Structure formats: structure tokens, C-alpha cells
Amino acid sequence: MKNLTLVIMAAGMGSRFGGLKQIEPVGPNGEIIADYSVYDAIRAGFTKVIFIIRENNLAYFQNNICNKFADKIKVEYAFQELSKIPSDVKLPAGREKMLGTGHALYCAAPLIDSDFVLINADDFYGFDSYRIAKNFFTDSQNNRDYLSVNYPFITTSSPNGSVKRGVVFTDNFNYIKDNIESEISFKDGKFIAKSLVDNKEFVIREDHPVTVNFFGLRQDFLDILKEDFNIFIHSNINTTSEFLLPEVIKKAIFDGKIKMQAKTSKSQWLGITYQSDLPELKNSIQELIKKGEYPDKLWD
Q1: Is residue 70 situated within a structural domain?
Q2: Distance between CA 221 and CA 135 in Å, rounded?
């Protein structure tokens, strides 16, 4: 069986949520979203999981989260810290914000020894997404082919405010041509996406596919990432500059280094952007349990 790693980004604070939403209980027996992610990955055939966390959260993750499934899948930890940069770089005084999702993967790179799927710790993707990823890596014969598992925008929106999503545009063969990282809000009866790069606004349909950081990547991609991060970290960064993974992927596509297939998941996406999203997420998980998609006690 081909090895496949799940890499979970769990180092960030939820500024709009108001705390460390990655460890917020959402299941009936205290399960967090990452419990369901690992559960789905195991039953899809993944062989290892890497948690990207802050080093001061290691004991908590070991003792309260990963101990429940450590005998079912190999578990490793990578630490995202501002100190994880080349020795010749000095960050601006007062820099406290993490360096972004691309830096998170940069910190985990030494532990990655296979093809892998990268996800957010605070997004519930559903089993079909992991099944798609496993089948993709099992069947794909082209090492330049990569994967983005997407969702119709409306299923990833929040009734409590705007959300940040990647708006996907594809060619006739379902390869991604562009992915515009945007803040999307509902105005005057329309969904308006505002690019996070140049602030340009455009209208999208409610069923337009968007990315929520579920990417299937090859181990070779780490060489591209390291090269781009070296350029970023030696540039004129400030106290808020971020090295964002979707931008690295988009550049690699534009440069012809990779091709990324876009596939739409049939699973229900669930997530927490705002504290007020939490009750609906818990209710949705209860409905999935009632339908028999997950057991009441996940790790019994």
C-alpha cells in the first residue's frame, strides 16, 4: 500500500473566533474537529498524520488529543515558530504574527516522506474528501498532477459574517487556471468576492467552487516551497507579511511546474469562523451521527 500522510495545520489562533478553535470540543464525547479528520483519514487508508502546532502546546496534544488514536496511525509533530527561519534573517521588531500557511508547511517539511494532504485543523471536510485524495494518489500516473478538493461556496459560508476562501477557476479538463484568495460577503442580494491581493471585487454564484485548504501535494513540492520561502524571507517583510500556501501553489501552476486537478467533494463541509458558528457545527455533527456516518463515540 502506498504511504500517504495527512498534515494538519493547528498552530494558528482564531482571531475572529476568540481563542484556539482547533481544540474546541464539537462532538458528543469531547471530540474536536481534528478527531474526525484523523478518523476519516484512517478509514480512507492514510498511513501517517503530522500535526503542525506551537511547541508549548505539545503536551496538551499528546495527552488529550493524539493519545486516543496513536495506536491506529503513526503520529508526528512539527512546530511552527517565528524562530524557524534561516539563521541569516532577522524579523522586524515587534513581529508576533505567524508567517502564514506556507511557513507552516515549511516547518513540517523535514517530517514529510511521502505524498501528502494538507488541511486546516478547524475545518471538517467529510469522508468523501479523503476518499477522493486516496484514490487520486493511488491512480495518478503523472507526478506533476496535484489535487485540490473543493466545495460549492454556499456550503462553506457563514451566516455570521464574511469568510475567506480561494475562488477557483478551471479549464475544460478541470485543471485549475486561477485561484483567487478572497474575502466573500453577501451584499445587495449577491455574493461579492474581494481579492486579498489587489482588493478587486467580483460576483460569484452560490455554487461556485472554492478551496478551503484541502490540497493533495507531492513530496517534490517541498523543493518549490523552500525556494519560494527563501525568496520571501529575504525580502522586505514587515510585522504582518505572510507566506501563503495558496499563492505558492498558484505561482507553481503559472510557472508550469505543476498541474492541479479540481475535484468537488460530496461531503458536508463544516467550520468555525466565528464563535456563533459553533452551535450549528455541533448540531450538524449530531445529524451525521444519526445518519450513521460516524459513531457516537469516535474512538471506542
Answers
A1: yes
A2: 19
CA distance 40 to 52: 18
Q: Which amino acid is at 181?
A: E
Q: Is residue 177 part of a domain?
A: no
193 pLDDT above the threshold of 80: yes
CA distance linking residue 86 with residue 108, whole number of Å: 15
Place of cell 501553489: 249
Count of domains in the chain? 1
- Mapping DSSP to helix (H, G, I), strand (E, B) and coil, where does residue 190 land? strand
**Which range marks the domain in which residue 141 is found?**
4-149+209-290
Residue 276 pairs in a beta bridge with none
| pLDDT > 50? residue 32 | yes
Residue 196 belongs to some domain of the structure: no
Confirm if 280 and 286 have CB atoms less than 8 A apart.
Answer: no
CATH code at 249?
Answer: 3.90.550.10
pLDDT band at 40 (very low <50, low <70, confident <90, very high): very high
Q: What is the Cβ-side half-sphere exposure of residue 171, based on CA atoms within 13 angstroms?
A: 8
This prediction's pTM = 0.93
